[in-house]
Amino acid sequence: MALKLSYFDIRGLAEPVRLLLVDKQVAFEDHRIARDQWAEIKPKMIFGQVPCLLSGDEELVQSGAILRHLGRVHGLNGNNETETTFIDMFYEGIRDLHNKYAQMIYGNYENGKDAYIKDTLPGELARLEKLFRTYKNGEHYVAGDKESYADYVLFEELDIHLILSPTALDATPVLKKFHERFAERPNIKAYLNKRAAINPPVNGNGKQ
Ligand SMILES: N[C@@H](CCC(=O)N[C@@H](CS)C(=O)NCC(=O)O)C(=O)O
């Protein structure tokens, strides 16, 4: 089934999807929408927004739905109901952190960045680290021995926070190790090297 992922030329909400597809060696067209094309494309999108994954002639939107779909199709969704629910719960927790990050990035970067790093982030990461240790003390993936869609989201979330603050993970060694391990996965490593040469913005307003 031909896949086409449409999004802006930034990392944003599409990057975990790209990471998952690259890691699983699923071929896809990485369609990057230029800002001046958006006015024409927006009305064609189900919710007027992207990312959008075109799978054959099926149009999938909402980043969480896209990730869960790929999770089911590629066996990245846990081995049983308990694991699947845990993975969903973990994903939603990351989304909550990402919403706080996005509020700061888009709404209050100049005045809010330092306070976000100092007052908001440590508690958020500590909670995620505690949850991450649920399975096998966090030595592998979100749900234990096998990767899930939430691992790609977690990796990207940690990665963008390291851009924001290079010491962000110093107080959460288990998450820090996960980030280091995940970056060494051969397909991810090759993608990260390729991406570094282009260095696309993380966010739509160029702040990161
Ligand atoms: N809940 C949606 C949010 C999608 C969203 O906010 N997309 C933004 C880019 S990150 C967008 O399309 N912005 C352009 C617009 O709204 O016109 C999801 O998770 O996919």
UniProtKB/TrEMBL annotation:
Pfam families per record: GST_C_3, GST_N
Catalysed reactions, semicolon-separated: RX + glutathione = an S-substituted glutathione + a halide anion + H(+)
All residue ranges annotated as the GST C-terminal domain in the record: 80-202
GO molecular function terms attached to this record: glutathione transferase activity
Residue span(s) of domain GST N-terminal: 1-78
Keyword Transferase among UniProt keywords: yes
Keyword Transferase: yes
One GO biological process term: positive regulation of cellular response to manganese ion
Keywords: Transferase
Name of the top EC class for this enzyme: transferase
Entry EC number(s): 2.5.1.18
Gene Ontology CC, one term: cytosol
Family assignment from sequence similarity: Belongs to the GST superfamily. Pi family.
Subunit structure: Homodimer.
Free-text function comment from the UniProt entry: Conjugation of reduced glutathione to a wide number of exogenous and endogenous hydrophobic electrophiles.
Official protein name in the record: Glutathione S-transferase
